[in-house]
Amino acid sequence: MFYVALKNVAANKNLYSMEFSIDKSVEILERTPALLEHLLNGISNEWTLNNEGGETWSVFDVIGHLVHGEQTDWMVRAEQIVSKTAGKNFSTFDRFAQFENSKGKTLEQILGDFTALRMANIEKLRQLNITEDDFNKTGIHPTFGAVTLTQLISTWVVHDLDHIAQIARIMAKQYKEQTGPWVAFLKILQQ
Amino acid sequence: MFYVALKNVAANKNLYSMEFSIDKSVEILERTPALLEHLLNGISNEWTLNNEGGETWSVFDVIGHLVHGEQTDWMVRAEQIVSKTAGKNFSTFDRFAQFENSKGKTLEQILGDFTALRMANIEKLRQLNITEDDFNKTGIHPTFGAVTLTQLISTWVVHDLDHIAQIARIMAKQYKEQTGPWVAFLKILQQ
Predict the structure, then answer these.
(1) Mind listing the pLDDT tens digit for each residue in B33-70?
(2) Interface probe, candidates A154, A157, A160, chain B, greatest B C-beta count within 10 A
């Protein structure tokens, strides 16, 4: 009883909810390119060109998807939200554009593209000089309707972390059969 | 019908199973410290000291766990397997040792500890001059019984990737509430 009560107090305290801030968002956004370059540049193709089976994505596909997001999604939408003149309706994001766009490129090339685009987008974000007054300004998402600038930038950050976890999972699965009985202890292989 | 048949061919080909190699294992093992240092050094404490609620681990706890693995688990067990004189029974790994061992240390300190221990362990691994004749040599795991050197080293690699994914997930959850309706599109927030 007492133990259960204590756990509920912890759950109610909601320990894991940070307040939104542009600076803390940029802390993640600016680290992702270096993290990916350190993990992936020069590594064997089997880690990056294999997928999780069937129609799933390889690491190469995921990097192409991140490139397309930098080109057409995050900062385009942020600028629509804060602009006094631009339309507020977001374009639909193409989740499969990378299969065409990355053709004929190496992993190193698309990683370099991602790094350059991300750094330019962080610079654009800083130049918007966003203040707390802008946090609740909205644009119109094709599925969700009105979404705020806070929600957009938070999602950009979590989207990075989601794909970092996905990349780790795709790579881990290349060795799934090799782990033998340990497969039972490795949560990433159950997903 | 044709589409289904094609998907089955892909599934049967088992595209996502690499052959084990020491070199390809080291490709991951040697990248993990730099990846973690690039992601975590200098970042705000909220990203690294908060957890996923209740009794879950923070990023700080995960790094402490990785340190303890370098000290007591992976290479200790690899040396037991290939040694002609050592006992073959592995000690039980303490999954909670980091709560005592990391006390009073900063994240930067335990990251530095991890990097130094990992680099020393990779050097030890190289000095064992493992050949294919060693791959199926065994040690005795306290739960699984006989496990091979291939299974141990593969698990070391996947264990890194599992905790990289976990770190991304812990960090992502700090912004869960901030993503608003996008929470439905972000798989990492459902785990």
Answers:
(1) 999 999 999 999 999 999 999 999 999 999 999 999 99
(2) A154
B46 and A24 within 8 Å at the Cβ level: the answer is yes
Model pLDDT for residues B90-116, shown as the tens digit of each residue: 999 888 888 889 989 999 999 999 999
Residue A177, CA distances (Å) to A55, A172, A182, A183, B150 in order: 20, 10, 10, 8, 10
B26 close to A184: Cβ distance less than 8 angstroms: no
Please list every residue in chain B whose beta carbon sits closer than 8 Å to the beta carbon of residue A148.
Answer: 180
pTM score, whole prediction: 0.92
Among A96-100, B147-151, B177-181, the least confident range: A96-100
Q: Say whether A147 and B182 touch across the interface (CB within 8 A).
A: yes
How many degrees, rounded to 5, is the angle at CA A157 between CA A156 and CA A158?
95
Hey, is the C-beta of A175 within 8 angstroms of any chain B C-beta?
yes
Q: What is the pLDDT of residue B95?
A: 84
Question: Taking CB atoms and an 8 Å cutoff, what residues of chain A touch B191?
Answer: 191
- The beta-carbon neighbor of A39 closest among B35, B47, B185 is B35
Give me the amino acid identity at A142. Answer: P
SS3 annotation, chain A: CHHHHHHHHHHHHCCCCCCCCHHHHHHHHCCHHHHHHHHHCCCCHHHHHCCCCCCCCCHHHHHHHHHHHHHHCHHHHHHHHHCCCCCCECCCCCCCCHHHHCCCCCHHHHHHHHHHHHHHHHHHHHHCCCCHHHCCCEEEECCCEEEEHHHHHHHHHHHHHHHHHHHHHHHHHCCHHHHHHHHHHCHHHCC
